[in-house]
């Protein structure tokens, strides 16, 4: 009976693979990356607990999402010299245990979710920074030591203080929105050095604002190679809504940067968008408009890699906005995405990031947008 079960398991695995569960392919132009971790919907709809952020594996049940940056590692050097993570109602150092002598949350229960997503062909990366994260590196030596720490705690290294246990993440994402570029090139190079000797592929991505060059990441993007760049086309004058009104995709000038300045000429550029009107202070557009912009942009620029959305909780509450844009990218058609939340976004003074009242369980204090 045991042999029969093993045989049937092998057949099932083969069928799953043959039916399209494939490893993430960064060379494609129809990928969808969706941030997870900040319970953005919960921050803007505190009484609608049914639609609060779900477990990580919930967002890996179909083929809509290809890459998930888990947000955020918001403190680089905390108590005991170790970093800190805050993933709102899922993992934080207020509601979860911390490793002794540190402020680093012990969320090893996430290991199975991470592996489930990876088995489904997704990549799960760790996003560093956020709107108010303590994300500053003051020297190349410090940056290299910090990269060693990240490698040991979250990637292919080893440590007694691994927040996600023995699960190995697929890379890092830089969402640096303050503090300057510092020595981040040295950090990236060190991560690349570690990855070069590993038997697994690791990805390095960044999430700059759409004004070019980005004030915090512009020089970093020019100094070292990234696999993908998730450009935030919202909360700025160059947001998607403005581009749509002008009937133009000219602000996707990073295609020229990718081909002429990026150390990695094969870098993929993602069109970053809010997944709902309550995801950002400005920049949300309905799914038909986003689909038109994305497919038109893709037809004009071969550096186009796909669409990035903020965030998973908002996308699911907004009639699966993530699935709708994936359908548009893979079939050229958009699925309707009507929702009571698809309204004109409220005005935020200065068009800057929305700031929420601090709450560890509802939404992280480091809610980005």
Please tell me about this protein's structure.
The protein is 30% helix and 14% strand. By secondary structure, the chain is α/β, with parallel strands linked by helices. The protein has a single domain, classed as TIM Barrel. The chain has a nine-stranded mixed β-sheet with strand order 1-9-8-7-6-5-4-2-3. The longest helix has 17 residues, at 2-18. Residues 328-342 have a biased composition (Polar residues).
Task: Give a short overview.
Residues 328-369 are annotated as: Disordered. Residues 1-23 form the signal peptide. With 369 residues, the protein is α/β, with parallel strands linked by helices.
What is Rg?
A: 20 Å
Strand order of the largest sheet: 1-9-8-7-6-5-4-2-3
**CATH topology label:** TIM Barrel
Q: How can the largest sheet be summarized?
A: 9 strands, mixed
Supply database-style keywords.
9 strands; alpha/beta; 14% strand; disordered C terminus; 369 residues; nine-stranded mixed β-sheet; TIM Barrel; single chain
Describe the secondary structure blueprint for this structure.
Blueprint: H1 2-18, E1 31-34, H2 40-44, E2 67-75, E3 84-85, H3 111-119, E4 123-130, H4 140-154, E5 171-176, H5 184-196, E6 203-206, H6 218-223, E7 228-232, H7 240-245, H8 254-260, E8 268-274, H9 287-300, E9 304-310, H10 312-317, H11 321-331
Helix pairs in contact: 4-5, 9-11
């Amino acid at each position: 009976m045991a042999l029969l079960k093993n045989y049937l398991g092998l057949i099932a695995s083969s069928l799953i693979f043959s039916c399209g569960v494939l490893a993430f392919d960064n060379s494609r132009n129809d990928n969808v990356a969706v941030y997870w971790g900040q319970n953005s919907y919960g921050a803007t709809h505190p009484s609608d607990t049914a639609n609060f952020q779900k477990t990580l594996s919930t967002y890996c049940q179909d083929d809509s999402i290809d890459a998930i940056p888990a947000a955020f590692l918001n403190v680089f050097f905390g108590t005991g010299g170790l970093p800190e993570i805050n993933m709102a109602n899922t993992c934080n150092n207020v509601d979860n245990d911390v490793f002794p002598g540190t402020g680093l949350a012990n969320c090893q229960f996430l290991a199975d979710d991470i592996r489930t997503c990876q088995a489904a062909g997704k990549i799960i990366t760790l996003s560093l920074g956020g709107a108010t994260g303590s994300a500053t590196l003051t020297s190349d030596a410090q940056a290299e030591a910090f990269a060693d720490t990240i490698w040991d705690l979250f990637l292919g290294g080893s440590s007694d203080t691994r927040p996600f246990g023995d699960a190995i993440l697929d890379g890092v994402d830089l969402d640096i929105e303050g503090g300057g570029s510092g020595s981040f090139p040295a950090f990236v190079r060190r991560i690349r050095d570690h990855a070069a000797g590993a038997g697994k592929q690791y990805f390095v991505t960044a999430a700059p604002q759409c004004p070019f060059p980005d004030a915090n990441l512009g020089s970093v993007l020019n100094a070292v190679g990234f696999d993908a760049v998730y450009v935030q086309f919202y909360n700025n004058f160059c947001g998607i809504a403005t581009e749509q009104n002008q009937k133009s995709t000219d602000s996707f000038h990073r295609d020229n940067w990718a081909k002429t300045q990026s150390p990695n000429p094969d870098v993929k550029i993602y069109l970053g968008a809010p997944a709902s009107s309550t995801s950002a202070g400005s920049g949300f557009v309905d799914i038909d408009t986003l689909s038109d912009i994305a497919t038109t942009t893709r037809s004009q620029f071969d550096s186009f890699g796909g669409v990035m959305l903020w965030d998973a909780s908002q996308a699911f509450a907004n009639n699966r906005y993530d699935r709708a844009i994936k359908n548009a990218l893979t079939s050229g058609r958009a699925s309707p995405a009507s929702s009571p939340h698809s309204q004109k976004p409220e005005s935020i003074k200065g068009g800057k990031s929305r700031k929420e009242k601090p709450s560890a369980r509802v939404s992280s204090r480091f809610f980005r947008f």
